[in-house]
Amino acid sequence: MTKKHSRWTELVQPEDLAGTRGAVFSSLVGSMERASTVVFPDVKSMRERDWRSKTQYSYGLLGTPTTRRLENKLALIDGVRHTLLLPSGLSAVSLIFLALLKSGERVLLPRNAYQPGVDLARMLAVRFGIEVDFYDPLQPEAVPFTANTRLLWVETPGSVTMEVADLRQLAELAHARGVLVAADATWSAGIAQNVFALGADIAMQALTKYQSGGSDVMMGSVSTDDDALHEQLLKTHMQLGLGVSPEDCQLVLRSLPHYRLRYLAQDIAARKLAEWLSSQPGIARVLHPALPSCPGHAIWQRDFTAAASLFSVLFEPDIPQANIDRFVEALALFHIGYSWGGAVSLAIPYDVRDRYPHSGGLVRFYVGLEDVDDLIADVEQALAQTINL
Ligand SMILES: Cc1ncc(COP(=O)(O)O)c(C=O)c1O
């Protein structure tokens, strides 16, 4: 396809119809190729096959044409040359750490980073001599760079407390010291922010969320435009055996053409709920990057074009946690569960007293595809039963 269309048009259009026009059977949908063994026509071809090449196939773990189709579409969305697929968002985090860090080198994580990623870094510190330190995502100038710092991890906004970080400034500070920048871009999903334009060298995403869209697939991706970094990531990806199932790729490929429209529609709905919540008694603060009450809101205004439908609220400090737990249980349309990105709305309480010692409990909302007025009515009845007594 010529480059005259937007990436969103290219994403939706089938890839290779031109070549099949006139065939007896031609579908808008690519077929799904499964394999463990890939067979070669002769020994010479077997010896010459390059496992690194994205157009050659040598073993099922390293991908089939279905895997490549999804990788190519994700690279198109990110506007970069290379994307790798992994069995979860967390394994995408682990690939980046394991491919880029070695014993004696340091990774800097934001204090609000996705907790299992932090736990992984701490495990690598204890068992493999990698150093880990933390920084405040709202104070880029205070990031504790050291001579052995190799990687700066950025997650913006944080997926529970929602602080929006200044990726551009963080990347400038890191690059000035020869430090690589990796961004967890799950919240912006390749839609709301271009992390590469702002300076990230590598981006990972949990495709488990909006891209899969059905609350039924786990997958992650790692993208970069840098050939040398890609080589390093690809080699570790192969060595760790981190292949993904073509069936799961097919499920994501099915949801991908409409994930942007879902994201944008859910953004409108979530902002309506967040704004309504801002004026409710019992709610001390709404942590939605598009609202001025969110730390880093000015950065969101400058660097983002949209918002995910994931945000949090802090309750007034005098409201007991037991009432907040009952509030979550009293919701009928929001279900209690981790993750996000599917059709169904979710709510979950988090303990954030380490970050907000003087505030009340936090509840994170994920707004799905229900009618937002029904969601507001649901929150209203749950607040009336448990908080505003
Ligand atoms: C910001 C963020 N990064 C990474 C992950 C990990 O993704 P997965 O659940 O696919 O392992 C999550 C999952 O909740 C997340 O919220």
Topology overview:
Layout lengths: L6 H6 L4 H4 L22 H6 L16 H14 L3 E5 L2 H12 L5 E5 L4 H14 L2 E5 L13 E7 L11 H10 L3 E5 L17 E5 L13 E5 L2 H13 L6 H10 L3 H20 L4 E5 L9 H7 L6 E6 L5 H10 L4 E2 L9 E5 L11 E5 L5 H15 L3
Parallel strand pairs: 2-3, 2-4, 4-5, 5-6, 10-11
Antiparallel strand pairs: 1-7, 6-7, 8-9, 9-12, 11-12
Helix pairs in contact: 4-9, 5-6, 5-8, 10-13, 12-13
Give a structural overview.
This is Cys/Met metabolism pyridoxal-phosphate-dependent protein. GO terms for molecular function: cysteine-S-conjugate beta-lyase activity; pyridoxal phosphate binding. Pfam families: Cys_Met_Meta_PP. This protein is of the alpha/beta class and 389 residues long. It has two domains: 7-257, Aspartate Aminotransferase, domain 2; 259-386, Aspartate Aminotransferase, domain 1 (Alpha-Beta Complex), CATH 3.90.1150. Helix content is 36%, strand content 15%. The protein is built from 13 helices and twelve strands. Strands 1-7-6-5-4-2-3 form a seven-stranded mixed β-sheet, sandwiched between helices. The protein has a five-stranded mixed β-sheet with strand order 8-9-12-11-10, with helices on one face. The radius of gyration is 22 Å and the shape is globular. The chain starts with 6 loop residues before the first helix and ends with a helix. The relative contact order is 0.12. Pyridoxal-5'-phosphate binds at residues 88-90, 114, 155, 159, 184, 186, 206, 208, 218, 220, 339. Residues 88-90, 114, 155, 159, 184, 186, 206, 208, 218, 220, 339 line the site of pyridoxal-5'-phosphate.
